From TrEMBL, chain B:
GO cellular component assignments: alpha DNA polymerase:primase complex
Protein name as it appears in the record: DNA primase large subunit
Biological function: DNA primase is the polymerase that synthesizes small RNA primers for the Okazaki fragments made during discontinuous DNA replication.
A GO MF term: 4 iron, 4 sulfur cluster binding
A GO biological-process term: DNA replication, synthesis of primer
Family recorded in the similarity comment: Belongs to the eukaryotic-type primase large subunit family.
Organism name: Brachypodium distachyon
Keywords for the protein's UniProt record, in alphabetical order: 4Fe-4S, DNA replication, DNA-binding, Iron, Iron-sulfur, Metal-binding, Primosome
Keyword check for Manganese: no
Length: 387, 462
């Protein structure tokens, strides 16, 4: 309050100063962030997983075997950093002011001493524990969102990330039995998931790969236009549940409209490309060509065409092979999570640490709690649409 | 195992005591049996087993389906390993396995290959066993999984049935299920062939093979590492006049060319690449070159697959840097190229980091890639949609019956055969060995073209 009055009194000058706060990343602010805001104690305590206690079960060497890596100004890259105390971690970060901090695995020995073990060639220096992690970038959805592209995001497309969280979080808990799951905004264009259960940390590369494959539906690559293929007379319970509980209504109630999926010929064709039967696709195409009457408001076009498409494909008239699951395939293509498989498969993959500043945006990578995220998005949606 | 030059004791007695096949048929090789082996048999038995493993490797790279593999394994075993006296067969089975452990324990790559083939061999032999025998083998692997009690079964019956239908099986046949931690059955989880709940997978009796094979693999994998240690520390030296030369000869004889060291005669330079792509690159590499030229960029998967291929084809490091810089600098600028991409190119040539000289990917590896959003790597015969593949093959000048033949192979998932047919169609020769490696495609193609040039020269000079 006082400052505001001060601004009025001093007039122009003060306003200019306020306007001078830079947007985006700034090394000086980083220093301040590390000086005053970065949560060293909690961060350290998290990674200790209870081994910083006093009882006999605690492994004193545990935290010192965890790799952190720092990227400094001028892209100087320091791997295999490790720390035995929060104080050590704090002073190193404050001194080096890293532009980026990555978390690696817990190794069999202190990574700083790895060279001593390298000679025997028996892989004595190897990762032994590491959280199960997932990395989802919204830029991987560029082919299905028209509002933004690349690292940009808005209220219309960010809900795609919420969907990812809903589907994966439910499955990680219900199917895999994990409980300690941390979802984090990456600071730029996506979300990271850290599954921290002891059982998850001990998974082998093969098991991580298996979990990633379990979640994999969208088989990308630029080499084919149809990237979702749901074979079989029924869906696996995980996919069926994802569809009926989450994806179907998200697609029909939100995405159809926010992305105006049928509002132009180009956009319609994109969806028609996913129908494996040429005849059905052209039938719909022709029907919509003739329907471009201006009396239909924008709102109706998307819902109406979707209904028509569903009716045509599910009518039972077209019992052709490959059409069986087409409606679901389209919904999955547009909404189902697209994971970066490589991130999850290997124990030694380095991932950006939560609570860091993203060097490209200057934003903090902060924690998201699923329910809170959904409420937030919903509120913002309501606010947005009430204008 | 004692290697002697005299009589031997039959394996059956020794084996029965130490995991050599309690049910009489399928040994699990848990412990090296106490037997005596003749030196001649040491080598001969190993060679016969290698024929079986090589045949399996071939079958896998040709994309054979499980039913076909089962038949193939049965035939290979009969042809090379079977003896009239089952005790003799068991004898040979066990000895040859342990000899090959010595041969294939010595590097990471050899271990991976051996493990993969032995696992496949075991899997199909297990499938061919009777249910009784299978149950005995399960208990031998100490899989303490009890069958699901009826009450629990009833509670999840619908979900189990749903899973069965989702993988194309009939809804209600199986009634014996096992509840196991999901970590035990990664391949079933990966392919969504089991119902999961709270960290447990519900595995059908018919899927038990997966359980057993995972355990088998894990046992052999650990054993190989130990064998390697023993080999390096004592055996190699001790046996340098007797077994060591045999062991080393065996691994060299059967490990096909990996194109990691291109011969010096074969050198290519950046200015040749477009021309060579048109005449001699397999489709996967042509495609990536095209996309690289178009986008002035390739994501990591593409850079690895294409970059290593070029290395194997004879592109030297300095030329590689020139080539990639010329493209990438048009998108990200040469400064960023030097900062962010040059390092990993040098890494591929063994000039950075742990200095491994990386090997160009074989077809098997490329086929099993998982291209994601923005990726152009992988095997076109597997990863392209039909339309894209048709167009790409047309661009190579393949059409008509030849094209249909290739697409037919693709539908049956014989990706390497499809590529072989492409080679035959574009070069007008037949390729009997089949394509297993992109660099093989390239060097065979160059051979054919040089032979043609030679013929033309000879003709014009007469």
């Amino acid at each position: 309050m006082e400052d505001e009055r001060a601004m009025e009194i001093d007039g122009q000058q003060q306003q200019e100063d306020t306007a001078a706060v830079p947007k985006g990343f700034n090394a000086d602010y980083l220093r301040i962030y590390y000086g005053k805001l970065f949560p060293y104690g909690d961060f350290f305590k998290w990674l200790c997983y209870g081994n910083d206690g006093k009882h006999p079960g605690c492994d004193q060497s545990y935290i010192g075997r965890r790799e952190l890596s720092f990227t400094l100004e001028n892209d100087i890259y320091l791997r295999f950093q490790s720390f035995d105390s929060a104080a050590e971690l704090e002073s190193s970060i404050k001194e080096k002011c890293p532009f980026k901090i990555d978390i690696g695995p817990v190794y069999s020995v202190d990574p700083a001493k790895r060279h001593a073990y390298a000679q025997s060639g028996n892989n004595v220096f190897a990762p032994v524990e590491r959280e199960l992690i997932f990395d989802i970038d919204i830029s991987d959805y560029d082919d299905v969102r028209y509002c933004c592209s690349g690292a940009d995001t808005c209220l219309d497309c960010w809900p795609l990330m919420t969907i990812v969280i809903k589907i994966l979080d439910t499955s990680l808990r219900g199917d895999f039995g994990f409980n300690h799951i941390l979802w984090v905004y990456s600071g730029r264009r996506g979300v990271h998931c850290w599954v921290c259960d002891s059982r998850a940390r001990k998974l082998s590369n093969e098991q991580r790969s298996a979990i990633a494959d379990y979640f994999r539906v969208y088989k990308g690559g630029e080499n084919t236009s149809k990237k979702v293929s749901l074979t079989g007379p029924v869906l696996h319970p995980f996919l069926a549940r994802s569809y009926t509980d989450v994806l179907k209504c998200f697609f029909e109630d939100k995405l159809l409209h926010s992305q105006q999926l049928f509002s132009s010929e180009e956009r319609c064709n994109k969806i028609l490309e996913l129908i494996p039967d040429e005849n059905v696709a052209s039938e719909l195409h022709d029907k919509w060509q003739g329907n471009r009457r201006s009396s239909i408001s924008k709102e109706d076009v998307n819902a109406a065409r979707w209904e028509q498409l569903k009716m045509t494909l599910q009518s039972g008239k077209h019992k052709a092979q490959g059409l069986r699951r087409c409606v679901e395939e389209i919904v999955f293509s547009y909404t189902y999570p697209r994971l970066d498989m490589e991130v999850s498969k290997h124990m030694n993959h380095l991932l950006k640490a939560p609570f860091c500043i993203h060097p490209k945006t200057g934003r903090v990578s902060f924690q998201l709690i699923p329910i809170i995220v959904m409420i937030l998005i919903l509120r913002l949606f309501q606010l947005y649409h009430s204008y | 195992m004692e290697i002697v030059r005299s009589q031997r004791q039959l394996a059956a007695e020794a084996a029965a005591a130490t995991g050599g096949g309690g049910a009489g048929a399928l040994p699990t090789y848990r412990v090296a049996p106490q037997l005596e082996v003749r030196l001649e048999e040491f080598e001969l038995f190993a060679i016969d087993r290698l024929r079986v493993l090589k045949g399996i490797s071939d079958g896998l790279s040709r994309g054979k389906r499980p039913e076909e593999m089962e038949k193939l394994v049965s035939e290979l075993w009969k042809a090379h390993m079977r003896h009239q006296d089952p005790a003799e067969t068991l004898n040979k089975d066990i000895i040859s396995h342990f000899v090959l452990r010595l041969v294939y324990c010595r590097t990471e790559e050899l271990r991976k290959w051996f493990l993969s083939m032995e696992m496949t061999l075991f899997r199909y032999r297990f499938r061919l066993e009777s249910p009784e025998s299978q149950r005995l083998l399960m208990s031998e692997f100490q899989l303490p999984y009890k069958a699901l009690p009826h009450s629990e079964f009833e509670a999840v019956k619908d979900k189990l049935s749903q899973v069965a239908r989702s993988i194309g099986q009939s809804a209600s046949v199986e009634s014996v299920f096992f509840k196991v931690p999901f970590e035990e059955v990664p391949d079933l989880v990966a392919s969504r062939r089991v119902f999961l709940s709270k960290g447990y997978a519900y595995v059908a009796m018919s899927q038990v093979v997966s359980l057993v094979v995972t355990q088998f693999r894990s046992n052999i994998s650990k054993a190989l590492v130990l064998t390697n240690r023993k080999w390096t520390s004592t055996i190699k030296e001790q046996e340098k006049d007797r077994l060591t030369p045999i062991v080393e000869a065996l691994s060299n004889a059967y490990f096909g060319p990996d194109y990691s060291q291109p011969n010096d005669a074969a050198e290519i330079s950046p200015k040749d690449i477009d021309q060579l792509a048109r005449t001699s690159f397999p489709l996967c590499m042509r495609h990536m070159l095209e996309k690289l030229r178009e986008n002035h960029h390739l994501k990591n998967g593409g850079r690895m697959q294409f970059g290593l291929f070029l290395k194997g084809a004879g592109l030297k490091l300095e030329d590689a840097l020139t080539f990639w810089r010329a493209e990438f600098s048009q998108k990200v600028g040469s400064e960023r190229f030097d900062k962010e991409y040059a390092y990993s190119i040098r890494h591929n040539y063994g000039k950075e980091g742990k200095r491994t000289d990386y090997t160009p990917y074989s077809c098997q590896k490329i086929i099993s890639a998982t291209p994601g959003v923005g990726d152009y790597h992988g095997c076109p015969y597997r990863h392209f949609g039909e339309e894209n593949l048709r167009a790409a093959l047309n661009n190579m000048g393949v059409s008509g019956n030849a094209l249909e033949g290739i697409l037919d192979k693709v539908k049956n998932r014989h990706y390497q055969l499809a590529c072989t047919l492409t080679f035959e169609a574009t070069h007008n020769v037949s390729c009997d060995t089949g394509i297993n490696h992109p660099n093989q495609y390239f060097s065979e193609s160059q051979k054919v073209l040089q032979a043609k040039n030679q013929t033309v020269q000879n003709q014009s000079s007469t």
